[in-house]
């Protein structure tokens, strides 16, 4: 399981650390070697290894190829987006939708181990609904653009 360092639900660290952590997690989840990913990009394995270690940042073209290879988006790799079906850190493999539903049903407690107030619960639900709504809008725009 992948573990990201988070603060209030947002992954922290510099951009290269975030990209590296996410690339390594996705690669391991897919069960492929660094050499395999590097060959897909047409780069040396050492260059790809530097991406995962946070020592180098992929160029935009390679970032897009990586996103496509791992079935995600460049925004997710950059840490700017948590996708609807993304596994969040410290959530035991639950999706955003599953966590949102548990919060709505008062199954998740606040940091003090107490039930969330209705206001806090509603705020969490609104935040968790954002990626779902963004995905729906993107799908609608794509359908309308055809």
UniProtKB/TrEMBL annotation:
Signal sequence annotation: none
Pfam families: HTH_3
Keyword annotations from UniProtKB, A to Z: DNA-binding
InterPro entries per UniProt: Cro/C1-type_HTH (IPR001387), Lambda_DNA-bd_dom_sf (IPR010982)
PANTHER family named among the record's database cross-references: HTH-TYPE TRANSCRIPTIONAL REGULATOR XRE, TRACRIPTIONAL REGULATORY PROTEIN-RELATED-RELATED
Gene Ontology MF term list: DNA binding
Domain HTH cro/C1-type, first and last residues per copy: 23-77
Tagged with keyword Transmembrane helix: no
Coiled-coil region list: none
Protein name: HTH cro/C1-type domain-containing protein
Lineage: Bacteria, Bacillati, Bacillota, Bacilli, Bacillales
């Amino acid at each position: 399981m992948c573990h990201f360092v988070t603060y209030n639900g947002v992954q922290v660290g510099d951009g290269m650390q975030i990209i590296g952590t996410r690339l390594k997690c996705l690669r391991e989840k897919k069960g492929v070697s660094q050499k395999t990913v590097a060959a897909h990009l047409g780069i040396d394995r050492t260059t790809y290894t530097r991406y995962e270690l946070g020592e180098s940042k992929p160029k935009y073209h390679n970032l897009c190829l990586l996103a496509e290879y791992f079935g995600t988006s460049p925004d997710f790799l950059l840490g700017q987006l948590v996708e609807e079906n993304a596994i969040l850190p410290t959530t035991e493999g639950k999706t955003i939708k599953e966590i949102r539903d548990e919060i709505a049903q008062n199954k998740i407690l606040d940091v003090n181990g107490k039930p969330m107030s209705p206001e806090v619960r509603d705020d969490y639900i609104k935040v968790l609904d954002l990626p779902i709504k963004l995905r729906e809008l993107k799908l609608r725009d794509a359908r309308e653009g055809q």
